Structures are given as C-alpha cells and as structure tokens.
Amino acid sequence: MTLRLVLATANQDKVKEITAIFEQVGSLALLARPSDVADVEETGSTLLENARLKARALVDATAIAAVADDTGLFIDAFDGAPGVYSARYAGDHATDHENVTKVLEAFLRLKDQTVRSARFMTVALAIFPDGTEVMAEGSVEGLIIDEERGTGGFGYDPIFVPLEGDGRTFGEMPEDEKNAMSHRGRAFRLLADRLEKSGAFRKNT
Which single residue of 50, 57, 135, 157 could bond 44 by disulfide (Cβ 3.0 to 4.6 Å)? Predict the structure, then answer.
C-alpha cells in the first residue's frame, strides 16, 4: 500500500531535499504541488501555524492529503530572530544571499560577537481531507560563523555549523550527509514513521 501526499512547497531546493528523505520510505509517495495553486501567505506566529496554513491550502485545492513544513533559524544573540521570519528576514522577496548578509551585518553591530549559538527548527505536518493531522518536529544545534562557506544546501546553510558535525557548515556537506543530521531530515523521517503507524495511513491507502 502506498500513501500519496501532495507536497505543499514549490521551493525546488526544499522539494529536492524532502523527496530524497521520503524516497527512503517505500510506502509514501510525494506528488508535486499543482502549478495553479497560489502561494500561501504565511501569517502564522509559529512554525506549526505556518505549516498548517500551507498544508490546508493544498488539501482544499486538491482533495488529497498534503504535507508541508516550516523552518526557522533561531539565533540566541538576536533573541531568537529571525525565527518564523527566516525566509523573509531581509524582506518579503529576499534572496538567500540577502538574508544571510543581513544576519552577518547584524552580528557586526553587536558589542559582544562571541555568542554564536543558534538552532534550526522544522515542523513537518501532514493533513488529510477528513481533517486528521500528523505532525513531527526536528532541530539541530549549531553556531553561526562570520562568513559564508560552501556552495551546497540553501538558505542559511553556508553560515551554520552543526555542533555534532566536524566543523563544516551545512553548505560544505554533501546532500546525504546534511540530511542525516539536519532539522528537516529529522522532522520528515519522524513524520514518515508516524504516518506509517497512523490510522490515517490505513484509511487512505
């Protein structure tokens, strides 16, 4: 039996990453987000609220179970910012480079630039047409460095060094190595496990 889920994100970097994680689970199949579904405004105050907005919009548009995530980088020196605003920290249509640059410039304005601790957090959520929800969270602790390193990954990956790694940023790691320890990898592996064990899986396959 295979459970089909529409992937809410249209971000091709995230599509590639999430697909690679779900391909390891043979009973789950991801469907591409329909091109005619409009972008969802992320007005939630938490990662869960934003993930729910995105997944619910796809369920309403397709009548098929949908999966969405929201991810934030929480920097201790910035009182948790950019947090839920990570994707648009430098503006509503900011590029990854613009967001990273804003973080690095903000550090330069701090009197104490030694507090570099931060964490990535992801909430992954599946919603079914009957309203059933299955949710999972993943996080990874790390440090923010003062310059970009690596050309892999996306978002803030070139300035984030996971504590359980070997000193490389996520941007310097091969995709499979990053996925093995990343926040998104942990959230989606846990979500896949919970989906397979859920009553929603049995009802929708």
Answer: 50
Q: Is 70 a catalytic residue?
A: yes
Predicted confidence (pLDDT) per residue in 23-66, tens digit? 776 678 889 899 888 888 888 999 999 999 999 999 999 999 99
- Say which of 70, 130, 157, 166 is annotated catalytic: 70
User: Which numeric CATH code is attached to 3-204?
Assistant: 3.90.950.10
pLDDT single digits (tens) 135-171: 999 999 999 999 999 999 899 999 999 999 999 999 9
Closest by Cα among 142, 144, 138, 139 to 166: 142
Can you give the residue ranges of every domain in the chain? 3-204
Collect all residues with Cβ–Cβ distance below 8 Å to 36 and sequence separation of at least 6.
none
What is the C-alpha separation between 76 and 100, in angstroms, rounded?
A: 16
- What global pTM score does this model have? 0.92
Closest by CA to 185, choosing from 168, 170, 169, 167, is 170
* DSSP state at residue 44: -
